[in-house]
Design goal:
alpha+beta; 7 helices
Length: about 200
């Protein structure tokens, strides 16, 4: 994974003419706010540090316009910038695995979320076909920057453009959870229809 993280970073700077301080700041922001492969900031930091400790990289970097010495210098400055930014904030949202998928599938419906095309919708783009799900459902379990965890569940493509927003008990009141969801995902409020509580 260490060189996978480095390669991910290099893809993000392959069209940059210079690897100056502006690029260091941009990539540091990406590591902290839009993490690669949904890794934590510490996991990304450790991967870069481990890659720098290797004397030889076996990946082909011929596609990369910057030579390896420049890349290594850039990565060292990136680590220094990340160190200067400690303590790191929790990212706005992070995708978790499907370990608790069956629980979320049977969880509490909080709201329905209208989806746009994946190319235009960061939430939709995060949905993955759930391995082994008998209905071929797509989903993602998210940890919000507030610490709350929710799941989005949608039918297989091309059916439907709506996802169910599910939660598990115990959880914060629905209004607080929805506010956190809107804030940390930057989802437009008009796309979200809260589920009305059942009448007793």
């Amino acid at each position: 994974m260490r060189l996978g993280v480095v390669m991910g970073i290099l893809y993000c700077v392959q069209f940059s003419r210079e690897l100056g301080d502006d690029e260091v700041g941009r990539i540091a922001g990406m590591v902290l706010e839009r993490p690669l492969y949904d890794l934590t900031a510490e996991e990304q930091y450790s991967a870069v540090k481990a890659a720098l400790a290797e004397d030889v990289w076996d990946q082909d970097l011929s596609w990369q316009p910057h030579g390896e010495p420049a890349v290594r210098d850039f990565l060292r400055r990136l680590l220094a910038r990340l160190d200067a930014a400690r303590p790191w904030r929790e990212p706005p949202l992070r995708a978790l695995g499907f370990d608790r998928w069956e629980e979320y599938r049977q969880g509490t419906l909080l709201a329905r979320v209208r989806l746009h095309a994946p190319s235009q919708d960061r939430l939709h783009a995060r949905l993955r076909t759930v391995p082994g799900d008998p209905d071929g459902l797509r989903g993602v379990v998210l940890r919000l920057g507030s610490g709350d965890e929710v799941a989005l569940i949608a039918p297989p493509l091309p059916d439907g453009r709506e996802a169910r927003l599910m939660v598990l008990p115990p959880h914060h009141p629905a209004a607080e959870l929805l506010a956190a969801f809107l804030t940390h995902t930057e989802c437009e409020p008009e796309r979200v229809t809260p589920e009305r509580p059942a009448r007793g």
